[in-house]
């Protein structure tokens, strides 16, 4: 059962979150005596039960759509279906966000379903989508834009200095979401290869990767900045699989539950992610991006 605009099911996301939590406490359980283990298991079940009630409370009205009055009834219904699918797919991959989403729609004729979109991070944040309803539902669902914009909302606003990080995260996650939903054409690694490879030349430099990505953003060379930034998360995902037998999407799912509401900047996010892992994985990787020559971080060819 998927979420509708009126009734929202949390079962798929909760099941995923429970698996993540079990992985994170697995080593801890192994070190406990039988009596302590029984107590911890009972406490853990109580925590999960409390999370169920909390998740139900925050998902009863998880997204509101603004601007539907600008469209005819059939067009509005199609857009509702598209947004519902987009939110479902994002939650199945990144977890239930702790605050409701405000989605704003604007009519705009173009040669693609969603010619322009952006997020605003004032207050609880909102996603703004300019749409051409001459396209059908399938074209909207197959378009990457909504998954990219919704992925932004998994993290707090990181400021202009770290736009490359934010856009790199959203670019990486858009394909993770689409792959999880069965919408991505071709293999996940091939899609990343196609997008990242043309921009590696910018990072064959003695300048730091962060400074290069920032300069690309300032010069409005957005594909290079976005996909160059996405490589940060390619590395992070590989390290998580190797060292922790988990993935970045699973980690972000847990992050929504434990940390998203109180984090205000990149330093907070990195501290939270490292805290979940009990390893300074993200702080070390960010330090490399900000201090090491980019040529020592990026390969000459994406593999």
Plain-language structure description:
This protein is of the alpha/beta class. It has two domains: 11-152, no CATH class; 161-296, no CATH class. It is built from twelve helices and four strands, in the order ααβαβββααααααααα. The longest helix has 26 residues, at 34-59. The protein is globular and about 55 Å long. The model is unreliable at 1-14, 25-35 and 47-60 (pLDDT under 50).
Descriptive key words:
7% strand, alpha/beta, 303 residues, 2 domains, disordered N terminus, 4-stranded mixed β-sheet, 12 helices, globular
The share of residues in extended strands comes to 5-15%
Outline: globular
Helix fraction by DSSP (H/I, runs of at least 4): 55-70%
The whole-number mean of residue pLDDT values reads 86
Number of strands: 4
What is the alpha-carbon Rg in Å? 20 Å
Largest sheet: 4 strands, mixed
Structurally, the number of domains stands at 2
Total helix count? 12
User: Structural class per helix/strand content?
Assistant: alpha/beta
Please provide the ordered H/E string of secondary-structure elements: HHEHEEEHHHHHHHHH
Physical arrangement of strands within the biggest beta sheet: 1-2-4-3
Low-confidence stretches: 1-14, 25-35, 47-60
In angstroms, what separates the terminal alpha carbons? 38 Å
Question: What's the gist of this structure?
Answer:
By secondary structure, this protein is of the alpha/beta class.
